[in-house]
Amino acid sequence: MHIAVDMGTATGGAGASLDLEELLATRLLVQGNSGSGKSHLLRRLLEQSAPWVQQVVIDPEGDFVTLADRFGHVVVDAQRTEAELTGIAGRIRQHRVSVVLNLEGLDVEQQMRCAAAFLGGLFDADRDHWYPVLVVVDEAQLFAPAVAGEVSDEARKLSLGAMTNLMCRGRKRGLAGVIATQRLAKLAKNVAAEASNFLMGRTFLDIDMARAADLLGMDRRQAETFRDLARGHFVALGPALSRRPLPITIGPVETSARSSSPKLKPLPDAPVDVEALIFTAAADELRQPVRRPPPQPVVTPTADILAQLSRARPPEIEAPQTLFPEIDAAERDAMLDKVMRELLDDPDAGFRSVAVLYQDFLVRCRIHRVPGEPLALPAFRRRLAIARAEVDDEIAQGPLWAEALALSQRLTDDVQSVFLILAQAAVSGLPCPADATLARIYGTHSASRARRLLSYFEERGLIVVRTDFHGQRIVAFPDLQVETLPGDPNGPDVTREAAE
C-alpha cells in the first residue's frame, strides 16, 4: 500500500511528499543546527503519518508529549527501572500503541541508560509482534556519540549498541529509525551511515557542511548553500523523498511544543523610583538565608611544609580490637555465594542489566551484614558468570573446571556465563543446553543471539559444535578433551523449570 506523507512544498510550489512504506525500509537522517527547524520537521512527519503507522518517540526534552492530546500517544515517564522500561517496550510492540518516552528531568547518563533499555525491549520483542514501527530519536548525538564524553563507558556502550541495533538490524524486526542530530560530526558514523534518506537543514561549521554534501552527493563547492537555508527549509534526498537533491519547505503543524524560543518584547515602562526597586530587598527575600562566600584558603609557606615533613613520625597507635569476631576469607566467600544465589533465584534476574544486578547485590550484602569492602564491579561480573553456570561443589574442586575458568578469561565479561554453562554441561556429562537456556543466561529473549555466541566461541577455537543424526547438538571442548551429551537446541529452558 502506497502512503504519501505530505511534508510541505518543494521548489516551484509543487508538493513534497514522503513515501511512508519506502521510509520504513530505508530509514531517515535529519541534520541541522539548533533553530533550523528539526523538531518542527519531526512533528510534521509524526502528525501526518500518525493514522498509518505505530510511532515511538525518544524525547530527551519533553517536546513531543503534546502529541498525546491530539493523536492519542501514550506518554511513558522514563523515571522507572530499566527492567520496567524493557517490559513496557515489549508490551508496546505487542499491543501496537504509539508512545512518547519522556526523558525530561534526567541527566545525560540516565537518559542514555533508559533509552538503551527501552530500545532493547523494542528490538528483543517476539517475532509474532514484529509490526512496522516508526522510531523517532531526537538529539540522536546524545544516544550515539562519536567520541566518549563525561558519561561512563558502560552507559555509552549500552546506548550506542541500542542505536546501532535500531539503525543496522532493526529493519527485519519492523523498526524504522528516524534520527535527528544537531551535528553530523558528533554522531557515530556507523549509525548515520545506515540511513538512506536525508533531510539536511541549516549548518555553519565546515566539517558538518562537507559531510552533508558528501551524503547528498553534492559538489564540495555547493556545501556553502547550507549556510543560507532559512528555518524550516531542508534539502531532501533518498528513495523515499527524491532521487536528486530537492530543496523543500516544511509545512505547518497542528500541535506545538511545551517550550519555545524566547520572543522579543518591549521593555516595561520604567517606574519613578527605579533605584529603590533595585537596592531595597523585598520582604520574602529577607526571609531567605544569607549565602556567604566560602573562606579563602590559607596558604602555607613552603618552609613550613618542609619542616613538617622532616619531623619524626609519631608512633602508630594500635587499632582497638573489634567487638565482633573476625571472619576469614573462606567464610566471607561463602556468604557472598549465598547472596549471589539468592539474587539469581529471582525469575527476572536473567533479563536485568549487570548494573541493576550489581546495585541489588550490594543492597543484599548490607542486609546480610557481609563484612569487608564491597565487591568491585569487575569482580562482581566474574562471580556472576561463575554463579550462573550452577556447577556443584565436587566438580568445582576438580582440575577440569579450573581449566575451564582459565579458558573463559579469554572472553569478554558479558559472554563468559554462556561459555561456562556449556563447559559445566561438558564436564558434568550433561546434555547440551537448549537455545532458550543460553538466551536466558545471556540476558535476552532472542534465541538467535544465543546461537551466534556458539559461532563466536567456535571462531575463537574454544569449542567445536556438531549435530548428530537425530538433530541433537553436541559441543566439544578440545582443550578440556570433554564434550556434552546430545541435546535438543529447540528444547525448553530446563534450568529455569528445574529452579521453579
Describe the structure.
The chain has 500 residues and is an alpha/beta fold. The protein has three domains: 4-250, Rossmann fold (3-Layer(aba) Sandwich); 327-388; 389-500, Arc Repressor Mutant, subunit A. The chain is 42% helix and 14% strand. The chain contains 21 helices and 14 strands. It has helices spanning 20-26, 38-49, 67-71, 82-95, 108-123, 140-143, 153-169, 189-192, 206-216, 274-279, 283-286, 302-310, 329-344, 354-367, 377-388, 393-396, 399-408, 413-428, 435-442, 447-459, 494-499; strands at residues 4-10, 15-19, 28-31, 54-59, 74-77, 99-102, 133-137, 175-181, 197-200, 233-238, 242-250, 464-467, 473-477, 482-483. The strands form two sheets. Strands 2-1-11-10-9-3-8-7-4-6-5 form an eleven-stranded mixed β-sheet. Strands 12-13-14 form a three-stranded antiparallel β-sheet, with helices on one face. The protein is globular, with a radius of gyration of 30 Å. Residues 496-500 have low confidence and may be disordered.
